[in-house]
Batch of 3 targets.
Target 1
Amino acid sequence: MKLSVVVSLMLAVIFAVALVQLGLVSPDFTSNLYLAYKYLSEIPLQGSLLYTGSPEIVTSVLWDQRGIDTYYETTVLFLAIIGTLYIFAEKIKPSEPSKEMTVIVKLIAKVVAPIIMIVSISVALHGHLTPGGGFQGGSIFVVAPLILLAAMGGSKLIKLGFKKDSLLSLRLTGLILIAFIGISTLIIGFMKGVMGYLFLNQPKTYVPLGYADVIHAPWGEIVIAGTLILLNLMEFLAVSAGFTLALLGLDAVVEGGKK
Amino acid sequence: MMVEEFLWYYVLATIIGTAAVGLCGMICRPHMIKKLVMLTIFSDAIEMLAVFIGYRITATQPPVYPGGVIEGFVYPSQASLKEFAGAAVDPLPQILIVTAIVIGLAVLLFLVTLSVTAGEMFGTQNLSKIEGGEKNE
Amino acid sequence: MIHIPLILAAIGSTLALIASIVALLQRDVLKAIILSGIESTFFALLLTAFLAPDLLIAYVAIGLGINSVILLYALRKGERYEE
């Protein structure tokens, strides 16, 4: 153990000194790099090339300028969930917890879980206006079946409707619809004879087709930022259903008794 | 400015120190779940380091443009956007780390299933009690 | 004169370093999992000081809620103390 402590400390000191000496980090940086300045000043500006229609920089770069990266990351999550389900290749049966919980724990779990579900879908749908989005909403959603699982056992979850087949089909629906929205401008442009692009959001000067950014309703205006609201909703479905499925598989093995 | 520079170097040193503690713990300890706990500590510290590189001392705003969404949608003008870009934090490291957090959770799920299966097969989760496992001191 | 975000960041990162050193030297794996949850809380304080709201929402839900419970489930198939 002494050798590994010395080696890791030496590696850390060399790394820190190299970062400061090469000029990569410094407390004297007071203005942004050129790429960050270009993103910050041109994404909310109407009429520029990078316009996405939302004042939130992080979500619009994730889904519009780097959309293919985010799509492949959702695929990597799907591969991890398939690996988990393949190792636990048995039917997920309803099980009871090994120790009965008291009344206080069960009552608080029943009260808190619907509140968490409603907050998570609100965070996911407002991803283009305030900090939030698909990943954040999906991660918050997973905490609600986790609390119910620890307090009341797997049989209660299956009675509530979290079955294995329905969760798997929700996961696949989310992934396929993200791919379909990304390819749709390419197909429509091919049918009309115009060049279309993958994950295209707003119409540009050289591409005359795209999604709208503001809907004019008779009672006011609704800001949807093109494809951002649809992609956030699909990502929320995909992330929440996938992680709940992996949790059901883990619980079935740990509490399921001897094999 | 002396106090702020000292605090900046101090935060850099402690974040890299936490990463070194996590790296040392992954190698030394023989229990499988302890190794997974140290893996999560190590990856969290590297993510904080990446967000720390994008922080400016004179910045006062997160990368969300304020205004324009209350009562009627007004398109922002170019002068207010220039002022916003001068006072905001660098958004590029934050975008890359959102992806890294969720992929870290997926990798941890897979490693947990592997260690649960190994615990059932060998009867123990301590690597020095299995024949052919690693031996520490 | 007083730069409040950097003072908050210094407090948060010092306490996270202390929590992770205590987690390394523990013999009881259950206490190590709880200490990693405490360390996630101090890293959330650090993220607030660095003005990153998107990361904060995802990090609190994943690092504090899901990681602890999954590792506690995985501990049931082994022994609690490492020697």
Target 2
Amino acid sequence: MTSVSLSQPQVADDVGVGGSSPWETALRALARDRSAMLGLVVLGVIAVVAIVTPLIAPGDYCIAQPDIIRLKNIPPSAAHPLGTDKFSRDVLARLICGARVSLAIAFLSVLVAATVGTIYGAIAGYVGGIADSVLMRAVDALLAIPRVLLLIAVATLWNPLGITGLVLVLGLTGWFGVSRLVRTLVASARHDDFVAAARALGAGDVRILVHHILPRVVSPVLVAGTLGIGNVIVIEAGLTYLGMGVQPPHASWGSMFYDGIEYFPSVWWVCVFAGAALVVTVLAVNLVADGLREALDARQLPAR
Amino acid sequence: MIFIAASLSFALIHLAPGDPFSGSITSPGLDPETARIRRSQYGLDRSLLQQYVTFIGNVVVGNLGQSIRHGRPVSEVLGIALPRTLLLMGTALILSFAAGVALGAWQAARRGSRADRVAGATSLVVASLPEFWLGLVLLLVFTYKLPLFPGGGIVGYMHDSLSPVGQLIDRVRHLALPSLTLAVLGTATIARFQRAALLDVLPHDFVRTARAKGVAERWVVYRHALRNALVPTIVLAGLSLPTLFGGAVFVESVFSWPGMGLEAAAAFAARDYPLVVGTALLGAVIVVIGGMITDVLHAAVDPRVRAR
């Protein structure tokens, strides 16, 4: 586990062997972190299955209802490895569709959040002064609004949201933390000697920011983003569970779980498999995030 | 900060397409003339700036508008829901802080051991669980399989006919599962953080001094290091309030706990704009107040903060 590597500081890597770049060092540290690799493998398998399966399966397999009466709620069998749900849809097929939806939403919205947060934080940190104070007070205020309540408010006002809307909303409510992080790093880097050197060489503000300062921000943002993916998967499932997220007939692990509750103890397979897919994925993402934090030595970030 | 949050809510309401009287869902068959009268009744035909000033003024005096679903002021609806949510969150926060700090310290005292690794792995798994998922599992186990706790609500049907002691027990039994769901998740997060904070403190000189004095390793961790390592954990607990709020929303839905989260979810279903926005605003206010309490606690634990 990651907790082990915490107590056994890996000094050897930091020395750097024969001019290897910080990224190579970090990659090697990551490769030796067994739990992070396990997380990566699990995520890789889920991603490959989610991407490849639709290419070889019939087009409407997500919502196919071959025989609504006879195939309703049948337990796992050879024909349907994970059983069927109350609309006689194959649970395994739905799970794979759900993986596409859940992972795509999580990944894209974190991409939006990381981009907006980095730009906002970089501007605040680089400009400094009153503008910085104003920008960051605004972020403080936004951080104070509980994200789920904000999401519920937005989902109510813009109902129905749709998947694109969901991605945007999750992204636009997720960047506050990132912007704070980036702002701190940029503000401290601004006064470093290498920035003064670049300026002495005649580099403009944009060039300094993009070429000299932002590369130092990449790894903390990467760690924060990976943690964010796990978070967003949980929030999206929760919102969908409340009926505000992904709408039918789209499959999402949150909605499958919710649909399964109706028949729960007797028809256990829908809930159990949807819940397991959700938990395993989030756990894998968090393992990778933890490993990345260790490997990139970005431990100044808050733990989950 | 609350002012900014209020401005944002205003912006959100006005960026959203349409208004309560243009939708076909909320008011089907509303003729344009009635819609116009209604708009002027609610001040929706005035300029944006006028509406903004009115809105902020109202928020300042605690007037969040009229709930469409309840037909009562939003402040009244939330005034009933808020204490319930605070009870749920407060119980969960106290439980998870106590258990998390204890578990983290226990792990740090035997860092690297098998017990530490098992506890670390378990808390990582638990911290990854969605709130509604854990809530439903607990509900299934402790209500359906073993009928130990009630399945939801805040008090039982017979509550009014119980003795005062019986009423208290009834309330605690209803509070048990929802607060436990939140507390278990919080414990995992806080334990992971507390352990890391302790490991950061242990290399310091005063810890070495304590060891040199001959203090047993266990007491070094529990007495000397823990007090110092509590500071970041208290800050974390304050910072995690918005997340806790989010968790409470889902947990309230699972256990039909009639607090702010359940109100917000019901308001979503009823398109009750003033109520959802009011809930988010009140959430922000609670988080800000929670932040202030955190600062006070921080000063109580860390004399360096007090000196400044």
Target 3
Amino acid sequence: MDKIQLGEFIKSIASDLEIKEGKQYLEVTVPPAILHDLAKQLREKEEAQFDFLFCLSGVDYGSDLGVVYHLRSTLYDHVVVLKTRTSDRERPQLASVTDIWQTAEFHEREVFDLLGIRFKNHPDLRRLFLDNSWGFPLRKDYVDDINIVYK
Amino acid sequence: MEEKEIITAPDVEQEYVINMGPQHPSTHGVLRLLVSLKGEKVKSIQPHIGYIHSGIEKMCESITYPQIIHLTDRMDYISAHINNEAVCLNVEKALEVDIPDRIKVIRTIMSELTRLQSHQLWWACFGMDLGGLTCFFYGLRDREKILDIFEETCGGRMIVSYNCPGGLMYDIHPNFQKRVKEFIKYFRKILPEYDQLLTGNVIFHERSKGIGKLTKEDAISFGVTGPTGRASGFSCDVRKHEPYSAYGRVQFKEILHTEGDTFARYVTRIDEMWESMNIIEQLIDNIPEGPYAVKMKPIIKLPEGEYYQRVETARGELGVYIISDGNKNPYRVKFRSPNFSNLSVLNHIASGFKIADLVAIGGSLDLIIPDIDR
């Protein structure tokens, strides 16, 4: 499917989503509440079959914290980008997609470690690189006087 | 005095947890594996990483785009040139710069030389992990020849920093073509020796065939790419699927095997060395004339937006995801490193095998730790 067909296909699953045709890939902004459901359908529906989560990145947008999922279908070779964000910076929580793509287990641990986003239903959510005494370094408001990191 | 509990005969049903690493010769770097054992059998593996976490993604947010390539060198230092290429291609794509053919061809030759020396080093270490010390000397002897070619043209041997946004740092050395052709001629004779030494060895077969099987479905689900993924039949070669630089104009096969065990991963890499030599031979006599770099603005600012570039390093798919807010520094850079995903599959494929097999499986994944930790 090309970008336009993909956009219509995603609209047929969930109608009121913000779909943007990016320069490279189709970008879909998804509310956190329906993210897991949409991801599961994109993985399982016969026409889509997004079976390869090739990138999962956490982003600090300033006021919000978000996660970006790059999905590809190894069968049809089409790509879609899902974006979700939460405005809660104190206890941000999103749904885990580990049960859909197993690679998410490590990637979500990395996001939790560096940005502090918790993932619901993650099998083993521990810090990955740093120990518990650290803050969340990839946040934009992270300050570390010793290592000269300022806002 | 307090009475101490007397420990009697060990309970055979008990689980025994040992640390493999962080300083262990078979982990090829500071990787710690927490291995639960039952007797000699591996029950589960928990990788503990982060010993050399250097925060490259955070550092990138405060430096300019031409400076980033000096950090990506240090990620996967064995395929440093290809890492740099990923960043450069992404910046050039964002700025819509037209890159002359000469640069594309030289980049492709350099990438394939990098892949060759990476696989040579892997072969050397893999042989050594399984007890064939001679492999180490053979592999490193031949790798030196490629590093010498790099040194002559780039100045550096491993951390080459030869790419820059807009082209290359300097033109190729006048001896470059001659020496590469000499090397290919030499290595075509030497590579069958690798097979004689290790590929047909009965002990090697016993230790690698049927060990650490990974199915295609699991490879896709765990995001395992590169030779490891292709040994399981997962067609994931970015050079074929999304050709960049000069890969669109050369003839080469994507090596695919279906067994998915340690031996298949070994054979995939050996076959890839032959393919790399084919690619270099097609290009080395046809380097077009032209400039070696495009004139770029002194301060590179990417237009606001998001850019993603995939390349095929020696270990798998490297993705560079840049979010730009229009400044001279990126807003956020994410490196999707191949080794990070490849490591995550270790528990899945090595559970149930013996601890000696864990060394073989770990070696066949070809992990580079700075690429995992970043």
